[in-house]
Recover the amino acids of this structure.
């Protein structure tokens, strides 16, 4: 192998190393973004479940009130 060929191969390998480093960096950035989205989604689900529980509780209370004041059939 001539010196020129060795230099050419070395330059190609350096470029590949640079590309791999750039891809690793981009992968790390994407991983952080996905983690942030997962955290946001988890918070949204928690809020949704809390709202559902509140609505269910209010429904029970409204049902009891309706039954007490005679607005609802007791068959339900």
């Amino acid at each position: 192998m001539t010196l020129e060929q060795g230099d050419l191969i070395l330059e190609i390998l350096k470029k590949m190393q640079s590309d791999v480093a750039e891809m690793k960096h981009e992968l790390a950035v994407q991983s952080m973004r996905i983690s942030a989205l997962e955290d946001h989604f988890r918070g949204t689900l928690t809020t949704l479940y809390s709202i559902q529980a509140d609505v269910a509780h209010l429904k029970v209370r409204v049902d009891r009130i309706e039954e007490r004041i005679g607005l609802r059939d007791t068959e339900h």
